[in-house]
Specification:
Rossmann fold, globular, Mycobacterial_A85_antigen, Esterase-like, AB_hydrolase_fold
Length: 283
């Protein structure tokens, strides 16, 4: 191959390959409920900065799992590219190591449902060019974050139009041995009623009422696959529309970094269908 031909081939590859120019930044988001601020990762699509400065974008809130933090998704996956591909804002808040994203009645310093479901959303709408309607918001997460995303969406159907769970711990009653969980759920024997009524499986009927676009997936080798199958079957019995998938894999980043691609595609389709991509010239 001569040098001239090689040059043109390289040039063609450069212009045909996608250029990922999303912006990733760490911000501090205050919590009145917990009287402190927590860091979060925000990813903005490339055209957010260089395009029409009156354009507004739908937002996907992506939650980390137990023992993780706000850097997990960007450190372990290529999630940022999805912001460019689907023209969405991604917000990845810190949910504490073992908060389970609930407002714990047993630990007043752990009020992460209010923080993520109310305060983070309010911050995003105030500081970013978001589409501040339920049709322009989705929430998902992995493991503990999958539980948190579904619970937050169930409790705030006026806020989130779509929700997802990846390898979700949808039945905390199967996680009694998880370090730290009793600090927020209480002792599983003495406070069994609290554990029971907060299991997503028990609350499946609420999805029937709330009309949330719903997607759930889990790896076939994941310890949580049984509870996810039970939730799926319950939703089928209730006639609740939802997307459910099992794929090869376990409770690992190899699975999660692949699954998030399908979930963001699902949310993008929901935004298009429900008007969540509508642009605004409002300042």
């Amino acid at each position: 191959m001569n040098k001239v031909r090689a040059f043109w081939i390289v040039l063609a590859l450069l212009f045909s390959s996608p250029v990922w120019a999303f912006q990733s930044r760490v911000v501090a988001i205050p919590s009145a409920a917990m009287r402190q601020s927590f860091d979060a990762t925000v990813v903005l699509p490339d055209d957010y900065a260089r395009g029409n400065h009156t354009r507004r974008y739908p937002v996907i809130y992506v939650l980390h799992g137990s023992g993780g933090d706000y850097t997990d998704w960007t450190s372990n996956s290529r999630i940022g590219r999805l912001a460019d591909r689907y023209h969405v804002i991604l917000v990845m808040p810190d949910g504490g190591h073992e908060s389970w994203y609930i407002d714990s009645p047993f630990n007043r310093d752990s009020q992460y449902e209010t923080y993520v479901g109310n305060e983070v959303v309010a911050w995003a709408d105030a500081h970013l060019r978001t589409i501040a309607t339920k049709q322009g918001r989705a929430i998902t997460g992995l493991s503990m974050g999958g539980f948190g995303a579904l619970r937050i969406a169930l409790d705030r159907p006026e806020t989130f139009g779509a929700a997802g769970s990846i390898s979700g711990a949808v039945d905390p009653r199967a996680c009694e041995d998880e370090p730290g969980i009793a600090h927020v759920f209480g002792d599983p024997a003495r406070h069994a009623s609290y554990w029971n009524r907060n299991a997503i499986i028990v609350r499946a009927r609420d999805f029937e009422r709330d009309h949330i676009d719903l997607t759930i997936d889990c790896g076939v080798s994941d310890d949580f696959v049984s509870s996810n199958r039970t939730l799926h079957q319950r939703l089928v019995e209730l006639g609740v529309p939802h997307d459910y998938a099992e794929r090869t894999g376990g409770h690992t980043w190899a699975y999660w970094s692949n699954a998030i691609r399908y979930q963001v595609l699902f949310f993008a389709n929901a935004f298009r269908r429900n008007g969540g991509y509508q642009q605004s010239t409002r300042a």
